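> tool_call: predict_assembly(chains=four)
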Amino acid sequence: MSGPGTPGDVLLEVEGVSLSFGGVTAINDISFDVREHEVRAIIGPNGAGKSSMLNVINGVYHPQQGRIRFAGETFTDMDPHRAAKMGISRTFQNIALFKGMSVLDNMMAGRNLRMTSGIFAQALRLGGAEREEIRHREAVERIIDFLEIQAHRKTPVGRLPYGLQKRVDLGRALAMEPRLLLLDEPMAGMNLEEKQDMCRFILDVNDEFGTTIVLIEHDMGVVMDISDRVVVLDYGRKIGDGVPDQVRSSQAVIDAYLGVTH
Amino acid sequence: MKRHLPVILLCAVLTAGLFTPLVTGASSPGFWVEVLLGGLMAGVLYSLVALGLVLIFKASGVFNFAQGAMVLFAALAVARLSEKMPMWAAVLIAIGIMVLFAVVVERLVLRPLVNQEPIALLMATLGVSYFLDGFGQTLWGGDIYKIEFGISKDPVMILESLFQGGILVNKDDMAAALVAIALVALLALFFQKTATGRALRAVADDHQAAQSIGIPLNRIWVIVWSVAGIVALVAGMVWGGKLGVQFSLAEVALKALPVVILGGFESVPGAIIGGLIIGVGEKMAEVFFGPVLVKTFDLAGGGIENWFAYVLALAFLLVRPEGLFGERRIDRV
Amino acid sequence: MAIDILTLDTFPKLLAHHAQVRGRLPAIREKHLGVWQTWDWARLAAEVRALAGGLASQGLKRGDHLAIVGDNRPRLYAAMCAAQCLGAIPVPLYQDAVAAEMAFPIQNADIGFAVAEDQEQVDKLLEILPQCPMLKRIFYDDPRGLRNYAQDALMSYENLQEAGRAFEAQNPGAFDAEVAACKGDDPAAMFFTSGTTGHPKGVVLTNTALIDRAQAAATMEGLGDSDVVLAYLPPAWIGQNIFSYAQPFVTGYCICCPESGETVINDMREIGPTYYFAPPRVLEALLTTVSIRMEDAGALKRSMYAYFMDVARRVGARILDGKPVGAADRLLYAIGDVLVYGPLRNVLGMSRVRVAYTAGEAIGPDLFVFYRSIGINLKQLYGSTETSVFVCIQPNGQVKSDTVGPAVPGVELMFTPQRELLIRSPGLFKEYYKNPEATAQAKDAEGWFHTGDAGYFDADGHVKIIDRVKDVGRLSDATLFAPKYIENKLKFFPYVKEAVAFGDGRDRVCVFINYDMEAVGNWAEKRNLPYAGYTDLASRPEVYELIRECVEKVNADLAQDPELTHSQIYRFLVLHKELDADDGELTRTRKVRRGHIAEKYQPLIDALYGGQKTIHVEAQVKYEDGRTGMISADVAISDAKTFSVADGRKAA
Amino acid sequence: MFYRENGQFKATYRADEQMLPILQDRVFMFAVVAFAFLAMPFLATDYLFLSILIPFLILTLAAIGLNLLVGYCGQISIGHAAFMGVGAYAAYNLVLRLPQLNFLVVLVLAGLIAAAVGMLFGIPSLRIKGLYLAVATLAAQFFIDWMFARVKWFTNYASSGSVSTVPIELFGWKVQSPSDKYLFLLAVLVVFTLVAKNLVRGHLGRAWMATRDMDVAAEVIGIRPVYAKLTAFGVSSFYCGMAGALYGFVYLGSWEPAAFNLTLSLKLLFMIIIGGMGSILGAYFGAAFITVLPILLNQIPLWLGLSLSTATASHLESMIFGALIVAFLILEPHGLAKLWSIGKEKLRLWPFPH
């Protein structure tokens, strides 16, 4: 039985994926899997190919080799829209919010896939269209409540402090009600308190909605505490994979980390 | 290879189009060459204006919609000044004015708008061009003026030996072409050999890098805009000399847009070759393809050259967005 | 609108009444998920019914106590009433209390059931479970984060109501029987008063007491079911509970719960309450933000503001009291109302306020007059938990800043020779729970309640409170020493947050001062005077200068009152840390615990009287996250100018 | 200052998401509209109608259209006058060839045809951005100009190449007098302003803005760029198409191909820059500004008693436009609309500065 929070069977499988930009190899023959409901971390020094890995998973980049199995379907290259449709959502390392829009609208945009009323219905805001809007507004409000950003609902995201923007970014991803949530350095550039909050939210998400989470971080510290299993990348190669303690004690990992400075 | 196929096809079609009149005998070789030369002539001028665009784009990432206005302005300046003083003096003063203009633009437009998104900058240059049009015509007057180089306009026959009937060309056209070519060569030298030139290229590649090797961006902008201004001046004179200095110059100069699209925004050779392609292309299309259109669709006259350049550029955009010589980039997340 | 409180003598009956006569009118609104979710009276009654069933099914019986821990939430108020339906007694506890502080009430009232707002509160209760074996069941409103809690003491609000409906089905009529069985003189609720010393006492209040007082005040102010109240203070404080539970149940008006702590100001603007209660410190904080925000305004705006506030100070209050005012001034005030007062009321969220009370501590005249002058009918109220709040209220038109008004109908007042105020009223508490001797001390044979407050009747028969009787001391020269009175006079300055005066049995008066971080911090920035934090700024000579001015103004003022002229302040120091309830230096209602402070800071007091210029201190502080740390600092001590009666007149 | 928002709380999402959530705004807006419909027709002179109000209303409609594309979806176009042209010629031919058609139907059809053409020329936007797109739209401009000038069928073989229209009749109402024309246009504008407002606050509008602000992120959360951009082009051209038809039938009456040239395109662009990118209200401000400024430029010298040749006036005009564009881009990139909303905020917070 795999209720929310308890890891279940494999949801995502990455098999021998390689990616290079004009000769430069970003990812080199990487394989790993992610189980339902688990928090899976991909760590590694900067430039280890972590972000590229995410971008491959949700189809922003197209790998030259390898394939991806998600929810039983196999892809040689995903495309972002299909990924979104299948329930993969993500946040961005350097917050990619919609600057010109309010917190609410940013998160409503996350519901776009689910909103179906036609252009004509919207133009005249016919009953159906309006009811749809309200239905989704309610869903979004629950997330706003969950992330404790009620006070900023109608503020343009540009005006929010960095930490809150990160939260809204997460909120937008959650608004998609994803099966798989990709977090690209969710704690980058945060102070200790903000990091603790973010950890809490990540765990709560995993816990309340049973969302499977893949997150990237470059510093081991925080991640080790909140993730069930960890993949370690270095220069595009996989140098470690397992539960935090195994990884922490692995020589290859230690070397890789001694090599880099923080 | 797969990526290049459409481009190759497109080029093939163009070349085919270029030679059909000869093959089908729709035109006498002599006339064909005349048209070709005419096209090249116009092309050289397009290249000149396009060159200005490319310089500015390389250095400041700004797409200078005002290039046309600059051409008009410079031409007007020379035309009106040369009424009161010797040509060389007029040109010198005009150059001075264009440099001054560059300084003003850098101060009042570029600096405040630094690292805004390109669209904003494009619109700003739109504003500049409007201002310049108005200003130029208030300052110098809005009528049609002549620029006299003292080169006779009477046509000469050349290559009678090759084609029966020979080919008609105007001396001043020749002169203009030569001037233009000379200028292009000069710029090429400037970019390859001089320190500033190399600096400019550095900026184009990477602003941070440029600053790190100790070049104040602002000065670079001034230089680039000045150079562009001088290029515009030359273009304006050549052109003005040909069809008289008037408002339409600004419109004609718009043709530089498709040219750079074709050649790629950041490539000097691209600008030149693009210019020639467009010049020849639209002339040929006008002369040989136009009548066919008119006949088949019963049009009220041809005038294809009004849009040919743009549609051609559009076609290129669709098959090769980065242009002939531009390099493509992947945007990271 | 007056209702018959003889037949409707309990809150459950009142609820039923409202559900019947105004079932469709709003009873409770809560801003949740971005909009004001509304329960009308019928809905509230239904919620309560299901809840009562649930509680009964879980074994809550007549006379049991039900702890209610959390912020203002409709479901928690419903729980209060549900308990009362069963004849059980709800005991609201402060939601910001630390776990340890919750242990005592639960043990004292052997509370077996608790309704907690959320995970935070649940965690606290679970933490003290070992000390409190009697606590059998904990019900929670917000399930967030509690999914994986295994403890079988826990039960969610939804499940509780489910159980309730099932229970109702099995024993039909049980609910109504229980409700009918409740009588007016049954206990309705128990409030723990965090006494300034010793353990808190559980004040037991009967239905009649609360309902009678609520009714009396409501009649006096003409409150009706169209009124609106914002519930934003801790519901465990009677000062909130009477306005957000007892009175709405009597008058049928609507209470509104803010969305979250950070949104209160905004939510108040949206709701625009018609009936408002705020202790002076809240009004103070509001005014401070007003003045700070005005300082950022352009010169023109500032002078306009200054000018019209001046007009208001001159005539505003008089106009509000309906006293005669010249036509010219009326016109000016009208203009001011368009340009300043109206907008100000709007941004403060007070445009619709008909009646506003302040109570709990003395209020500064400037502060008090400010609100009245911009047309907000702010009045003083005197009362306490033991008296169901409403003892004295200033009637419209007879409002002064230094009295608390005459007795509310139904109340008898009397002063002892020691100037202690005694009260007899239908609103008096039944007893201190399980504390007969304390009860006996407080309530004598003739049923007089000894307030412990010292004061007297002024010329118009309004009550004037100066201090706590036990604190009223004597200087060594046997003249009167009323520390609270002095402290308040100091605290009326925006720069002074807290003050603690010493002098009983000594030759002269000295004080500790906490400056107001916001006001002084702003003042420092204006003078671009860099500072690291409270402690740093506290040691600055500039700040001492600033504070000294305040102290000397107070002295000049005291010099005028022959009784108190000897209580002028000779020396003072600015404390190196802010007094904090978490460190036991303030009560939960932010009253200074003088005794405790005196012990804790003995060295400082010695230094004050020992004539030293500075003294080094180290102190332990509790941080937000519960960690504790040490701070050490050199505290300077400064002398203040004092006045003879004569130059006191001049200076004032 | 005039705002009293206490008690204006929202108990339902419907109330919370209404167009003007604040009572005072609703009152104000209602007053304005009422004035425009009831008072204006009696107050305004024919001159005011013909040379200011009527062009203003039509240009506003067009500006709203362009703003939907440029301001909301972030796709630049320097060729929108061409789509107005399409609308105008479409309407001309519809009326010419199907005289029995009600003009409202003609209007909508004209819009739809323009929309189709717009989407066609919008296709490049799927592959190219910014400057490149600008050129693509420029191509549209010149090609379409040329087409109407040369392909005789569009102008019904008129020798001069210029076409002239018959007055509109709606259900027996001859829209002929200036005030009739004004009322007709006003009605159309009000309706389509509401439509635009609804679109931008619906999920389509959010898709547009998302694409504008951060296209990669938009795609990642499942917004199809193809869909967002093409709908934007479509709707925007629909508006311009209708505006074009009205411009031709109601304002010009008869016109030659040059009526919808690049200059008009740029004017539209200026309207939204000055008025405010990404704001419906901005379209109104921009249109008003652009219509009134030239007239002022002609009038002011007269008032000052010095005479200015029309040429110099027009040169001055373009100078001032140019300067204003740059000034706005630097000082207030969101134009007059932004200034307006700032002012509004100040009134709401009055007497506080922020």
